[in-house]
Amino acid sequence: MSGSLSHGKAQDVGAVGIDLDGLPGLGDSPETSRLDPRTWFGADRRDLPLDLEIGSGKGTFLVQQAEAQPGVNYIGIEYARAYWLHAADRCRRRGLTNVRLVHEDAGTFVSWRMPDGVMRVVHVYFPDPWPKKRHQKRRLIQAPFLRELHRVLSPGGEVRLVTDHDGYFTWMAEHAAEVADQFTVEPFERSDAADGVEMVGTNFERKYRREGRPFHAMTLRRID
Ligand SMILES: C[S@@+](CC[C@H](N)C(=O)[O-])C[C@H]1O[C@@H](n2cnc3c(N)ncnc32)[C@H](O)[C@@H]1O
What we know:
Blueprint: E1 17-19, E2 50-54, H1 60-68, E3 73-77, H2 81-93, E4 99-103, H3 106-113, E5 119-125, H4 143-152, E6 153-163, H5 166-178, E7 183-186, H6 203-210, E8 216-222
Parallel strand pairs: 1-4, 2-3, 2-5, 3-4, 5-6
Antiparallel strand pairs: 6-8, 7-8
Bound molecules: S-adenosylmethionine.
S-adenosylmethionine binds next to helix 3 and helix 6.
């Protein structure tokens, strides 16, 4: 997704938006490039549980979930600048002190920037399916990335996955099976952000629900 979402209005990411241009650069290796995302929150919030949402889009899940769970800190990652600006501005206007939104590629952010054992839950809702065979290597959910998620999750932590795409769901299950020593597959429970019959309450869920598409979902529970 790309393009301006501001409709000519000024956008301000305030303290919510984290642009990595303002942070120490990447080192020579992941181990020398780590950041501590807990320090991005107010001093009174640093010991709270921390969740990560990958591919936040317009930020609807983050806004609803962060309002429903004020005792949890949320980090969103969005690499499309227009969506990052839109979502961060939206969270700032709602006065959410428990959200930070990073403008970065999720692969780099998780593998290079995140320390071990800090995340309670990783939310991945309607990731880009890359349906063409020659593009499938771009899919976010792959066994090596799941191993990185295992590293950044705290004991008992979970990865929550939802997609409308049959082929991508089969792919996710196959890649989860490759890391069966690190995760167990469990049923998916709807999120606090969901409204009515929704599972997670993101923009893509709402759009696809109007189109009558079926969804697939799973939770991967970290084996400690
Ligand atoms: C299909 S949209 C889904 C947005 C939202 N999760 C929803 O359900 O409404 C996928 C989003 O993930 C973002 N995205 C895709 N790959 C990403 C990556 N590697 N790092 C960060 N964001 C990514 C895209 O820019 C887009 O906003």
